[in-house]
Design a protein that fits this description.
By secondary structure, the chain is an alpha+beta fold. The protein folds into two domains: about 10-45, no CATH class; about 50-90, no CATH class. Helices cover about 30% and strands about 15% of the residues. The chain has a two-stranded antiparallel sheet with strand order 1-2. Strand 1 (about 30-35) and strand 2 (about 40-45) form a beta hairpin. The protein starts with 15 loop residues before the first helix and ends in an 11-residue tail after the last helix.
Amino acid sequence: MSLTKVTRNFQVTIPAQIRKMLHIRVGSIVDFTVKGATVILKPKAMIDEDQTWFWTKEWQEGEAQVNEALKKKETLSFGNVEQMRKHLEPKKNRPHKTV
């Protein structure tokens, strides 16, 4: 447990070990929540509104799947966009090769 004193203007200093653990720096944004007689402080990141999609649960699950596939080398490479398009075309729409 770390103790700190409430100073003038009701300010408190976050102890160094806690700042390090939570990666809190000068200028960091923190959120306070009160539960009963307990105050919870959580660091928050500010995200531009047009970037919030990246942090949705669904997108992050997809990111995790991609990272896992990369680790397992379960990926494909293409020499150009046309090769990738051909690979992605439904098989029924692919031209048949005649022998």
